[in-house]
Specification:
The protein is an alpha+beta fold and about 120 residues long. The chain contains 4 helices and 5 strands. The protein has helices at about 15-20, 60-65, 70-85, 100, and strands spanning about 25-30, 35-40, 45-50, 90-95, 110-115. About 20% of the residues are buried.
């Protein structure tokens, strides 16, 4: 089921529950604005999820409503995580699904960081 990215934030989503400590995660990075952890169903040998700690449904919501500090922390964390995972030299992919047409499943902004192997074309031909 895909998410309507214009809907209000759902406090019961899996990432909100992880942020509240109700569900465990394999933490990769954390600061006051973001949390990153290994995906429980990895689609590549490295598959890390980066989420803001704020209540943002989508990239549109985040870019319109997050503070400059939150936005900067998110971007910096993505680079820090890629460098820390040794992904910069061989290359990596970052992906954010937004809304129903984009295939967003969890109604909390999240960035997938994939790497550790050749990833192939971005979209199936």
């Amino acid at each position: 089921m895909s998410v309507d990215a214009t809907q209000p934030y759902d406090e019961g989503n899996i990432f909100a529950r992880i942020l509240r400590g109700e569900l465990p995660c394999s933490k990769v990075y954390e600061d006051e604005h973001v949390l990153a952890f290994n995906d429980i169903n990895p689609q590549a040998s490295v598959h890390i999820l980066l989420i803001p700690k704020g209540r943002y449904v989508s990239w549109d919501d985040f870019s319109a409503n997050a503070s400059v500090e939150e936005q900067a922390a998110f971007v910096r964390a993505a680079g820090h995580i890629a460098r820390g995972a040794g992904l910069v030299e061989p290359g990596y992919r970052m992906l954010t699904n937004i809304g129903a047409h984009g295939g967003q499943v969890v109604p909390h902004l999240h960035l997938h960081i994939f790497g550790g192997e050749p990833l192939g074309p971005m979209l199936a031909q």
